[in-house]
Amino acid sequence: MKNLIIILLFPSFLLAGSEKANQEKFLILKKINTPIIIDGIIDEEWNIADKADNFFQLSPYYGKQPSKETYAKVLTTEKSLYCLFVCYEDQEKIQKLSGRQDNMNGDIVSIMLDTFGDKRTAYKFAVSASGVRSDLRLLDDARNRDFSWDGIWFSASKIYDWGYVVEIEIPYKSIQYNENITEWGLDFDRWRATDSEDLYWCTYDQSERQRISKFGRLIFKDFKPTIKGLNLEFYPVAFGKAYYIGNGKYKVDPNAGIDIFYNPSPQLTLQATANPDFAQIEADPYSFNISRYEQFFNEKRPFFIQGSEIFMPSGAESNSGFYRPMDLFYSRRIGKILPNGKEVPITFGAKVFGRFNDWEYGGFVARTQSIDYTNANGEKFNEPSAIFISGRVKKQILENSSLGVLFVGKKTLSDTYGVLDIDGALRGSNWQLAYQIARSIKNDLGDFAASAGFRQFTESWGYLFRSRYVGENFDISQVGYVPWLGTFNSVIITGPIWFLKEGPVSNIFLYSGPAINYEKVDQFTDYSGVLGISVSMRNNWGFEINFNGGKAKDVGVKYNFFETSFSSWFHNPKLSGNLYSSISKTFNFARNYLSNFYEIGGSLNWNITNTLRIGSSLNSWIEGNPNGNIEDITYNARPYFSLTPINDLNITVYIDNLFVRSTDRMERIFMGGLFAYQFSPKSWIYFAVNEIHDRDNEFNKLKMKDRVSVFKIKYLYYF
């Protein structure tokens, strides 16, 4: 096995390189004294700005001349950076869908800025033709995204009979940057929805797509941003909850809190919250689990999402998902939901994150209150008060690589829990090797865990490798999510990839390779082979077929296992969706036997008008039994409608229902509604209603279990 890994990976490092690209792509930043009015009208001041034109088509026809002309310009005042996009288009082809921040469709333009010159991270500011905004952070040389970042910036769009114009203003005090460098990395992007054209100012290889390390340059010739000020964001928050307590009565709980963001320098941010409302407004989707391990749920609470990138281990890739580092800091352990449905109260939280030269750092602290609860058997327990802390340091090495240390801990009066981690990533333009080594802490006990992942795609071949080891005493269940104690697994996948220049097919990846999985509880090493094909079409749909089969052992039962899966996806301005299905022979830990297991599901979303969107997901899980018959089928549907009459004002209603074939009845209905209005930058009004109906077996009918109404208003004072 070791020799095979070396054979596959060694040529990749020899072939990899950090080629200099787009060196001819640069703009000189010109300074003006009068601020530009952000209204989508091209003022005379723009005439002195350098022009970025001759955009490059990345897809669907790599390297071909774009169908329509685009150019962008940038200017600056002492306080703000300004950007202009001029996009030529037939007016009837411009997709003008309404939306809310970070949730947009249609024709879109964006500017990307590497403000530290580190060739790894960048800001991205995007605006649609209808004026919807989105902002995020590009991480790990654009291999990953952080959508939680929200800045204070301004934009406007205006549609003409020849196309449309977008203007953007980015105040320097809204972003972090290195005051000592003389140029920033720069790129522009345009998405033409009608033809699925993705156009960039810079040129990228088809196999790797966008890379921050290959950005063009924004050169500061007679000006460098050095804006100073208080840079304080102050958010008074008022919120209230109404709980249904039965017999037509409600318990009303009004409250208030404070959120503070403070940027004492362009490279440092402090965030604190007092008496916070940490409840998530939207409920988690239903999850069906037949494995022996705990289910993972994504974080949805804004305080824990914002600025979380610094606490993420290196190497996650949002575009493939093949390798995922271990989640050593699982923030849903803080203020967790107890067996009786109550949440552990959080009284205080604070974060700090920033940069100094090639170093990034972050810190986190939160305090939870003691709370009594009763489990499903009626036994009484106490969740003690606790302090959660985390510290992170990361350094840029070898130009585009990183090395970091992470600590996460939890302290109660009687116990100490935590984990210490060293992680990093070595990168070339078309490859990445990520690694992670960790030590758990549980009072005087501890154990080790490690993971690694490699990915490279050339113009003709793909290489993927991942491996994870978790010691049997590596228990970080109080602070992280690593439930696979006493396991080791490894997968190697490789195969040819074809990028087609003409025709409906964009690329084909045919892959195969071996996999092993050892679980100490079974004293056995499962082994299997993987074979699959992934096909992407030029009109934004594709499919993947995968087969995995071999020998396995679970709960003393040895067997031949297999899994065959199919997935497909599509997206266009009016419709988007996905379809998946799988059949497997596996051990059902929920029923404690070996049997066949089937999954069939998908989702469909339809933009009926520019303001109204409807859709639904439908999933089914079919459990077999040892006799080869169907034991049960569980169905879960989640229809919804979403109305956005104007940008940043949205009303969403959804119904999540659960039907079980064996009982031939609906077992649960979860209804939710959300009104959200961003009336000013980073200022929101929320009103949400959630209602749960569960099956009452005594009366054989659905009975309302809980109803909660939440009102929240958050207003930004910006100094």
UniProtKB/TrEMBL annotation:
<feature type="domain" description="Carbohydrate-binding">
    <location>
        <begin position="38"/>
        <end position="218"/>
    </location>
</feature>
<dbReference type="Pfam" id="PF06452">
    <property type="entry name" value="CBM9_1"/>
</dbReference>
<dbReference type="GO" id="GO:0030246">
    <property type="term" value="F:carbohydrate binding"/>
</dbReference>
<dbReference type="InterPro" id="IPR010502">
    <property type="entry name" value="Carb-bd_dom_fam9"/>
</dbReference>
<feature type="domain" description="DUF5916">
    <location>
        <begin position="231"/>
        <end position="337"/>
    </location>
</feature>
<dbReference type="GO" id="GO:0004553">
    <property type="term" value="F:hydrolase activity, hydrolyzing O-glycosyl compounds"/>
</dbReference>
<dbReference type="InterPro" id="IPR045670">
    <property type="entry name" value="DUF5916"/>
</dbReference>
<dbReference type="GO" id="GO:0016052">
    <property type="term" value="P:carbohydrate catabolic process"/>
</dbReference>
<dbReference type="Pfam" id="PF19313">
    <property type="entry name" value="DUF5916"/>
</dbReference>
<protein>
    <submittedName>
        <fullName>DUF5916 domain-containing protein</fullName>
    </submittedName>
</protein>
